[in-house]
Amino acid sequence: MVRGEVYNHLPQPSIIMDKIQIKINYSWQDLDQDMKRARVRILENPSMPVKDIYAIMRGGLVPGVYLSHLLDLPMLKNKRDISNHTLVVDDICDSGRTMIKFLSELEVKPWTLSIFHKPSSEFEPNIWLRRTVNWQIFPWESLKSSKYDSTDI
Question: In this predicted model, what pLDDT tens digit does every residue of 9-22 receive, in sequence order?
Answer without folding.
Answer: 344 444 455 455 67
